[in-house]
Amino acid sequence: MKSFLVGVIVLIAATSMTALADSLDGALPIPKFTSVTATASATFDSVSRIYTYNYVVGNPGTNTGAIKEIGLDISSRTSVTYGDPNALTIRYGTKLFTFAKFAALLPPTARPMSPTGIAPPGPWRGAITASGRALFAGGGPAGSTIAPGHSIGGFSITSFEPPALRDVAAFPDWVYVATDPANPNSDVGDDQSARAQQIEASLVVHTYTLGPSDVFPGSSAHWNAFQDSLAHAIALGWVSDATLARTLSSQLAQALAAAEAGDGTRAKVDLLTLLNTLAASTASQRRQEVYDLVKLNADSLRANIADKPIR
Fold first, then answer.
1. Dist. CA 88–CA 103, nearest whole Å
2. What residues are paired with 135 via a beta bridge?
3. Maximum CA extent, the chain
4. Which of 185, 171, 193 is nearest to 127 (CA)?
5. Cα(302)–Cα(300) distance, rounded to whole angstroms?
6. How far apart are CA 42 and CA 20, in angstroms?
7. One digit per residue, pLDDT tens: the chain, 311 residues?
């Protein structure tokens, strides 16, 4: 399984490169790759207690390279996980792994991750990486890259954790190709290896979307992650109505203050007020991601906090 973080260097004979111009930065043109879009929607199944995140990834026409891999941050600040990691599966080609089994294949130095299931579309492959990302890997069969000016849906992730804003990285379909006309079978030098990794790292594009958080539902960390994600979404311009943004923020802060005071009953009432405000909003005032973020987190907190403090 190839890593999407390490530059791939391909050494080919000069006779096959007559149509390509050799250069210090390799024989293949370096694509212009500056942005990516990743829209998301999230749902919750009250029976299985599983959240499902569906994505549509777009490659703007301003880019000149295709997208071959997409990595969503699922790293966790703790190794303590919520839910059964054997209940979530990852499809890699024709093989199906449980999250627990796939995680066991990673090195001991791998970052802690929220248990996650991955269902890629068509010929794409699902995986998790040692750096703590849920990976959709393409770059192989036809249909497993996203060309400039196009988008692909059907990327799906499942988790036991409610949503938070997460970093998502896109990687272009490009490798460093080096040739030595005098000796096409020679080894690639260390300087070219370093240059390859430097270029590939510079081509990675990041944005934000919804993804599994790393919090235990109803915990103080859950409250904090919810408030941080809402503030981040507002800062990103995902709530276009300034009045709605202020109202959502203040109502969540009021609910949090009640919870911190040990008044779970009051906190639930305040969260219901927040939900009513959200229900009265329209798509022209906020993105779907904001609706799902607020709805699913508020519902989870209402279901998982006690009416009275636990002594």
1. 12
2. 71, 127
3. 78
4. 171
5. 5
6. 45
7. 433 333 332 322 222 222 233 333 555 788 899 999 999 999 999 999 999 999 999 999 999 999 999 999 999 987 777 789 999 999 998 899 999 999 999 999 999 999 999 999 989 999 999 999 999 999 777 678 999 999 999 999 999 999 999 999 999 998 877 655 555 555 556 677 787 888 888 899 999 999 999 999 999 999 999 999 999 999 999 999 999 999 999 999 999 999 999 999 999 999 999 999 999 999 999 999 999 999 999 999 999 998 875 55
Q: Are 82 and 74 in contact (CB under 8 A)?
A: no
Is the Cβ–Cβ distance between 212 and 116 less than 8 Å?
A: yes
Buried b (16+ CB within 10 A) or exposed e, 190-206: eebbebbbebbeebbbe
Helix and strand numbers, DSSP H then E, in the chain: 6, 13
The structure tokens listed for 89 are: 């599966």
3-state secondary structure 93-153: CCEEEEHHHHHHCCCCCCCCECCEEEECCCCCEEEECCCCEEEEECCCCCCCCECCCEEEE
Distance, CA of 51 to CA of 55 (rounded, Å): 13
Rounded to two decimals, the pTM is 0.86
Tokens standing for residue 260: 């911190």
Indicate the domain borders of the chain. 9-212, 220-304
DSSP state for residue 46 in the 8-state scheme? T
DSSP state, residue 272: H
Which amino acid is it at 109? Answer: T
Query: Which stretches does DSSP call E strand in 173-298?
Result: 176-178, 205-212
Contact 215, 166 (CB under 8 A): no
Residue 207 to residue 35: CA distance in whole angstroms = 8
